[in-house]
Amino acid sequence: MPNTIAPELYQEILDAKAVVEPQIRGLEDLKATSVSPALAGEYNTALLERDHRLDLLNDLIAALDAAEAALEALIADGYPALPTFTMPPELLPEHNAELSDLQAGASVFGTPSSATRIDVTLGQPIPKDPMPARRK
């Protein structure tokens, strides 16, 4: 199924699979022929690398499909709108009391004040030995 989140990427991955899958089939066929163990090892190395690439391509397709499904579920849930909730009238007094307590608790914290004046007293300079002359 086409992907609406990243259609170009999705098609690119499908195109890459269309290249890799016949290569894998061909390498499996080559491996089955009567060749030297060294050549069979080369075929096997190439086959393992192509299998790994195919696994990554399939993982990405699955991830894009999952993202598509998640987006569809989110839209079905009404996204981007967020529903508001109505408080049952019998709970409103308790709710308002809790809000009042929260505001009262938060009010105990003040804002740190900035310094308006700084007094600095400097001591007397201490003489130091002159630096030795640099050699050229």
Rg measurement, Å: 36 Å
Name of the level-1 CATH class of the domain at 7-76: Mainly Alpha
Q: What is the helical fraction, as a range of percent?
A: 55-70%
- Uncertain residue ranges: none
Note the overall shape.
flat
Strand content: under 5%
Q: Let me know the largest β-sheet.
A: none
CATH topology descriptor of the domain at 7-76: Methane Monooxygenase Hydroxylase, Chain G, domain 1
Q: What structural class do the secondary elements suggest?
A: mainly alpha
- Number of DSSP helical runs: 3
CATH architect. name of the domain at 7-76: Up-down Bundle
State the order of secondary-structure elements, H for helix, E for strand. HHH
The averaged pLDDT comes out at 92
List the helices and strands and how they pair.
Blueprint: H1 7-31, H2 37-76, H3 92-106
Helix pairs in contact: 1-2
Description:
By secondary structure, the chain is mostly helical. It has a domain at 7-76: Methane Monooxygenase Hydroxylase, Chain G, domain 1 (Up-down Bundle), CATH 1.20.58. 59% of the residues lie in helices and 0% in strands.
Task: Produce a short descriptive summary.
The chain is mainly α. The chain has helices spanning 7-31, 37-76, 92-106.
Key words describing this protein structure:
single chain, Methane Monooxygenase Hydroxylase, Chain G, domain 1, mainly alpha, 136 residues
